[in-house]
Amino acid sequence: MSTMTDVTLADISLFAEGAPLMVFEDLRRDSPVHWNVEDEPNSGFWSVTRYNDIVEVLRDTEMYSSEIGAANLEELDPRQLEIRRSILETDGVRHRTLRRMLQPQFTPRALAGYETFLRGITATTLDKALVQSDFDFVADVAADFPIRVLAQLLDVPESDIPSLIKWGNKLIGNTDPEHADVLLGSPESEMYRDLPFRSPAALEVFKYGYELAWSRKGGNGTDLVSVLVNTEPSDGIPIDARDFRNYFLLLVIAGNETTRHTITHTMNNLMANPDQIAILRANPELIPWAVEEFLRAASPVHHFRRTARHNTVLNGQEIKAGDKVVVWFSSGNRDEEVFANPNAFDVQRHPNEHMSFGRGGPHMCLGNSLARLEIQIMFEDLLARDVDLVPNGKADYVYSNFVHGFKRLPVRKA
Question: Coil, helix or strand for 22?
């Protein structure tokens, strides 16, 4: 008989059908700071599964560092870490500086000017999808909409959208044989050890980003690339080629993947809970608040990793300097001590202090206001239409313990 000591969240097969909610529940109850064994060359990590412990790790950057280890489970040598360093692997003044460069572009006030545009492309996406009697909600709705928003923010043509989707799938899906050119951990991946996610797709993203940067350097554009290449960082340290390429790659991923998966999870959750659809259709003014439950239930990123700077104790567990400490948002969002009846999908849940964007701390998702607006507008439009969607086959999850998302969600009109 297996015990908690046998459980390791490094086992991706646990995530084949989405978040392993029962495993998380057992860990929260019996081993909330749990040692996980990993295959070599990795050396194991601590899983943090309770909400309040996760918040402590995220907020205490003096103890739990983002910059002395990768943001995910992979263990990097110092050379790799420097080559791959992005805003996610940066703390302190430099992190705040890099974040401030694009922060003005993502404030609610700045995004208010996009609302008409967002409603227009939402309507276009749904019009095209709903002329069909059955379709894949991922391909025809969830992937189509946020990538068009990203293309607008980057000021790139619609003809580039298929490439942006393909690159995001390959990078984030680096443990999924259907998506990855080279699987993480395979012997071939050693050839790409200096690239993010050990994916050759990163080279294509870098080339694309450099071409945009070269064409916009010295200009007066307001798109994200122009801001990055033409803004002087407040700490006086220029943006070099590494900073730009890694920042750009992060925008390609974060600007698409997490919103896409949240939209898909929400459609799946609404189909499973028609009573919640009825509530929102009768009270559409509730949708902006319901977005918080959409995000909590989705938890589109399973985890992020920190590294202990010093010996410490977390919830009674001794942690050594240099240990990997991994916070599991998809567990924290189901913590019974914080959320009543946490596995219920309740669009009127209040309060709803979910951690899908992080929960406090300097690394809280930069694009959270944009994601909320995109999700809100999508379901305001979809639920206002005289159409009901129902499942039309088995949902197919990305094979990953990092991203909590779908490859396919077949639906049909009822």
Answer: helix
